[in-house]
Automatic annotation (TrEMBL), chain A:
Keywords of the record: PQQ biosynthesis
Entry's Gene Ontology molecular function annotations: quinone binding
UniProt pathway annotation: Cofactor biosynthesis; pyrroloquinoline quinone biosynthesis
Name of protein: Pyrroloquinoline quinone biosynthesis peptide chaperone PqqD
The organism of origin for this protein: Mesorhizobium zhangyense
Alphabetical GO biological process terms: pyrroloquinoline quinone biosynthetic process
Automatic annotation (TrEMBL), chain B:
Residue span(s) of domain Radical SAM core: 5-222
Keywords: 4Fe-4S, Iron, Iron-sulfur, Metal-binding, Oxidoreductase, PQQ biosynthesis, S-adenosyl-L-methionine
Protein known as: PqqA peptide cyclase
Reaction(s) this enzyme catalyzes, per UniProt: [PQQ precursor protein] + S-adenosyl-L-methionine = E-Y cross-linked-[PQQ precursor protein] + 5'-deoxyadenosine + L-methionine + H(+)
A single BP term in Gene Ontology: molybdopterin cofactor biosynthetic process
Cofactor: [4Fe-4S] cluster
Protein family according to the UniProt entry: Belongs to the radical SAM superfamily. PqqE family.
Residues holding [4Fe-4S] cluster: C19, C23, C26
Gene Ontology MF terms in the entry: 4 iron, 4 sulfur cluster binding; cyclase activity; iron ion binding; oxidoreductase activity; S-adenosyl-L-methionine binding
EC number per UniProt: 1.21.98.4
Biological function: Catalyzes the cross-linking of a glutamate residue and a tyrosine residue in the PqqA protein as part of the biosynthesis of pyrroloquinoline quinone (PQQ).
Cofactor details (free text): Binds 1 [4Fe-4S] cluster. The cluster is coordinated with 3 cysteines and an exchangeable S-adenosyl-L-methionine.
Oligomeric and partner information: Interacts with PqqD. The interaction is necessary for activity of PqqE.
Annotated organism of origin: Mesorhizobium zhangyense
Length: 98, 375
């Protein structure tokens, strides 16, 4: 059959967003941020959370990387590698829209 | 209890046992409850508030057919107001026009729709319901039209294992985000119908190849979850993520259980919501504590380095096949009676050959009082 959808690949111009079925939420019982999705609950670390919070449909991945590099005072190449791998994985799992 | 008790994350709410279909592998108990034993709206809402307070983040609304509850929108709204993620598990037959949209508006997060077959004739034969396939297709379209994410659930057994490629195409054509290829777990009605449902080894191996290739091809397009068949396994699954570890289920009458087949362990007594609070049941119920953690384990689990990976497998399968709920799940190659799994496969296939019936004529369809529970 012809595929109407295609696998999306991370690029610096892409503006990632969270699909409707993925929600970031603070859990008062565990005092931690959670990401809720159809079958799984994730407990993101600070960096993952910072990436996901910037998935607002208007920030480009390029901007996202420079922002995080500035915030964490880390070299952009390192941040770029981590962010790209993270977003590609989340996109492949249909948890982030690119 | 030496281990730290954590709050539960997930809950399966079996709102009703009523269902328009009669799948011979249904995971409901063979002793089905009638509508008059179901909790009323206010009790469910109260239970859901307690669940949220306790730390439950995700509720799977199931049955039977949960949309037969006329108060489903109210129940979804109650959960949604507490930020609980709601997943509707439906057979998608007989849902009135406009209802999916109303559920979405009430805050429903996700729909999981089952297909008994990828072809209409199979769906109708397995669920014993004429016209059901077309209705499911319509439900899938309504789910997408309401903007809800869709998982197609395909319970796999001998009568539809050759349709796995068609299930993949079907799920793609419906725009599903996820497809569950879920080999039937032999508890409840599936245990009664085991001989009629068991696939042969060659079909299982073919299926594994097809699913693996499709997963690769569809990376980033559609997720395929594969629930492998226990009887053909080397290691068991971590049933429910471990007994009473991060999830539980509630039966239509409010009985709270660690998993949907736990009632088959007759030595345990399960408590009802209302007699005690959810928090009390979760922390103190002897049935919940019976197989929590690793302290209850015997050898070979006790000294196995996988004991906190699969938690010794399924207690109900240990009960059903080893006759001892504290035994190692016989699906595990280290179980002293692991060979019995292969014997059961052979027996099932021999029975099918002897009947000359590879068709569905030997199904015991899921109905109230169709089988007596063994005592
Ligand atoms: S498995 Fe079939 S009979 Fe059982 S609840 Fe689901 S649709 Fe109904
Ligand atoms: S022996 Fe027990 S803990 Fe080890 S793999 Fe088998 S079931 Fe799991």
């Amino acid at each position: 059959m012809t595929l109407t959808r295609e696998r999306r690949i991370v690029s610096s111009q892409a503006t990632p967003s969270l699909p409707r079925h993925v929600r970031i939420q603070f859990d008062p019982v565990r005092q931690a941020w959670s990401v809720l999705s159809p079958e799984k609950v994730f407990w993101p670390n600070d960096i993952s959370l910072d990436i996901l919070r910037r998935c607002n449909g208007s920030t480009t991945i390029g901007t996202l990387i420079s922002d995080l590099a500035a915030e964490y005072d880390a070299p952009e190449e390192d941040v770029a590698g981590d962010v790209t791998a993270f977003l590609q994985e989340w996109s492949d799992n249909l948890l982030v829209k690119l | 209890m030496s281990e730290l008790l954590l709050p539960p994350i997930g809950m399966l709410a079996e709102l009703t046992h009523r269902c328009p279909l009669q799948c011979p592998y249904c995971s409901n108990p063979t002793e089905l409850m009638k509508a008059n034993r179901e909790l009323d709206t206010q009790t469910w809402l109260y239970l859901f508030r307690q669940a949220a307070d306790l730390g439950v983040l995700q509720v799977h609304l199931s049955g039977g057919e949960p949309t037969l509850r006329r108060d489903l929108e109210q129940l979804v709204a109650g959960l949604s107001s507490r930020g609980v993620y709601t997943n509707l598990i439906t057979a998608g037959v007989g849902i009135a026009e406009g209802r999916i949209r109303a559920l979405a508006e009430a805050g429903l997060d996700h729909v999981q729709l089952s297909f008994q077959g990828a072809r209409a004739a199979t769906t109708e034969r397995i669920g014993n319901n004429r016209g059901s396939h077309e209705k499911k297709l319509e439900t899938a379209r309504r789910v997408k039209a309401a903007g809800l994410p869709l998982t197609v659930n395909a319970p796999i057994h001998r009568h539809n294992i050759e349709e796995v490629p068609d299930f993949i195409e079907l799920a793609l054509s419906l725009g599903a985000e996820r497809l569950e290829i879920a080999n039937v777990q032999y508890s409840g009605w599936a245990l009664v119908n085991r001989d009629a449902l068991m696939p042969d080894r060659a079909s299982v191996e073919r299926q594994v190849e097809i699913v693996e290739a499709a997963r690769e091809r569809l990376r980033g397009i559609m997720n395929i979850d594969f629930v492998t068949p226990d009887y053909f396994a080397t290691y068991p699954k971590p049933c429910m993520g471990g007994w009473a570890r991060d999830a539980f289920m509630v039966a239509p009458d409010g009985t709270v259980l660690p998993c949907h087949a736990a009632h088959t362990i007759r030595s345990l007594t399960f408590e009802r919501f209302g007699d005690r609070s959810l928090a009390e049941i979760w922390t103190d119920s002897p049935a919940f504590n019976a197989f929590r953690g690793t302290g209850w384990m015997q050898e070979p689990c006790r000294s196995c380095d996988r004991r906190e990976i699969d938690w010794g497998g399924c207690r109900c399968q240990a009960m059903a096949i080893a006759g001892d709920p504290a035994a190692t799940d016989p699906a595990c190659a280290k179980s002293p009676i692991h060979a019995r799994m292969s014997m059961l496969i052979e027996d099932a296939l021999a029975t099918a050959r002897a009947d000359g019936s590879n068709d569905a004529t030997t199904f015991v369809y899921r109905r109230i009082a169709a089988v007596q529970e063994p005592v």
